[in-house]
């Protein structure tokens, strides 16, 4: 007969064995609870390749890894309507002598006819430096600007694809008057002058995926570059984009398509005398400043900060977090500091939409 002490020891030993058995059972249990996926059968999904300047899906990596092109486009009244502005991923609008001029950036969609092409400016060297050695399409300029473009090309900032270098890809049309009649074939320019490898753009702005845009609902915005250079955008809720108007007229390409970007970004920008010609203004796009974003019918205040030529503008909202754009095309207005970008009066918006 076991003594009381021995009986207690046997009970304790049995309890320990039960605990060890339970622990071992838990360690060896490979059954899956309902709703739990077996890791061995999990399918890995690859993130879609996106066009960097629009945030829209791309057919593949090889499509993205091609040079961007920046075409300098005339915006005097005699130059309208334009060719292919509606196909640009981004369009910069820069103040020049009392009017504006465009730097149209083509990457995801490259047309074989764009124009009218006009001169380069000192502004352009820094403006395009963060686009991964783009091809600059331009014609004309004073000796100082030509020297700046050639120096930028020698330093790998851009590829000089101007008329003097690639004249076989440019032509003049008879139905317009010079100097507002020069057009270029961007397909041929990229095919013959484009760079391989890492010389392609990376994202300059953040594009939202599921988050809602921030801002105050407004029918449109009015951007002043200075006397005589006022641009208006009216939100078209049906099309989901901002219709552009200038001089009270709808802004359309020569094929009749309306300029209607998903996003309008305004970055108030310091200007000074051009380093090549003190009679011309130069936009200093490296630095920081205030601005607004108009997307999805909402207007939000932002700041931009571009530490160096290779950096993006780093847009942030009033809370300090990155300002997100709607995937799609973006027009970037660079009015001088001291000018304005304000909400449009509803009656004015209705009048413009009514035509």
Key descriptive features of the protein:
alpha+beta; YerB-like fold; 2 domains; eleven-stranded mixed β-sheet; five-stranded antiparallel β-sheet; globular; disordered N terminus
Please describe what this structure looks like.
Mean pLDDT is 88; it is low at 1-37. Helices cover 18% and strands 28% of the residues. The longest helix is centred in the N-terminal third of the chain and has 25 residues, at 4-28. Helix 4 links the parallel strand 4 (135-137) and strand 5 (159-160). The chain folds into two domains: 61-193, YerB-like (YerB-like fold); 206-354, YerB-like fold. The chain has 355 residues and is an alpha+beta fold. It starts with a helix and ends with a helix. The strands form five sheets. Strands 1, 2, 3, 4, 5, 9, 14, 17, 18, 19 and 21 form an eleven-stranded mixed sheet that branches. A five-stranded antiparallel sheet has the order 13-12-11-10-22, covered by helices on one side. A two-stranded antiparallel sheet has the order 6-7.
């Amino acid at each position: 007969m076991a003594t009381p002490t021995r009986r207690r020891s046997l009970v304790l030993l049995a309890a320990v064995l039960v605990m060890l058995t339970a622990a071992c059972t838990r360690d060896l249990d490979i059954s899956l609870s309902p709703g739990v996926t077996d890791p061995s059968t999990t399918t890995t999904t690859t993130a879609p390749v996106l066009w960097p300047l629009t945030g829209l899906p791309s057919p593949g990596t090889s499509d993205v890894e091609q040079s961007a092109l920046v075409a300098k486009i005339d915006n005097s009244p005699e130059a309208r309507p334009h060719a292919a502005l509606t196909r640009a991923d981004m369009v910069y609008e820069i103040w020049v002598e009392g009017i504006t001029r465009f730097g149209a950036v083509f990457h995801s969609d490259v047309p074989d006819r764009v124009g009218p092409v006009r001169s380069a400016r000192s502004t352009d060297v820094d403006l395009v430096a963060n686009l991964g050695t783009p091809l600059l399409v331009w014609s004309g300029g004073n000796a100082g600007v030509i020297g700046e473009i050639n120096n930028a090309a020698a330093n790998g900032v851009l590829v000089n694809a101007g008329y003097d270098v690639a004249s076989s890809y440019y032509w003049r049309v008879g139905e317009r008057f010079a100097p507002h009649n020069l057009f270029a074939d961007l397909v041929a320019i990229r095919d013959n002058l484009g760079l391989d490898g890492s010389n392609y753009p990376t994202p300059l702005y953040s594009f939202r995926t599921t988050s809602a845009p921030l801002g105050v609902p407004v029918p449109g915005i009015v951007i002043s570059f200075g006397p005589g250079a006022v641009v208006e955008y009216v939100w078209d809720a049906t099309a989901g984009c901002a219709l552009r108007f200038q001089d009270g007229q709808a802004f359309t390409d020569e094929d009749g398509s309306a300029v209607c970007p998903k996003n309008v970004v305004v970055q108030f920008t310091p200007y000074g005398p051009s380093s090549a010609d003190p009679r011309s203004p130069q936009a200093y796009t490296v630095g920081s400043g205030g601005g607004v974003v108009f997307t999805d019918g909402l207007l939000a205040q932002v700041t931009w900060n571009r530490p160096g030529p290779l950096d993006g503008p780093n847009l942030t909202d009033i809370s300090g977090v990155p300002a997100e754009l709607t995937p799609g095309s973006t027009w970037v207005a660079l009015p001088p500091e001291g000018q304005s970008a304000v909400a449009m009066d509803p009656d004015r918006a209705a009048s413009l939409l009514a035509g």
